[in-house]
Give the backbone structure.
Amino acid sequence: MAEKAAKKNKPTNPISKYWRETRGELRKVTWPTREESQRLTVIVLGVTLAFAIFLWVFDAVFSNGLELLITQLFL
């Protein structure tokens, strides 16, 4: 009985405690299926591409508009 009390009071190694808690938390995770992962990857790539195109168009319009404004004011 005294041995169990001594084990409970023994300080635990913080690194092993971290890994033990991490494994415990990872067991609770609901991992996506392969189909979900593929579908969400396609969505992320599509949104990224759409946003990149939007920024490209916005930059082109803004750059050309600013260039036209500068040429009109200083020529």
Observations:
- The chain has one domain: 2-74.
- Residues 2-74 form one domain.
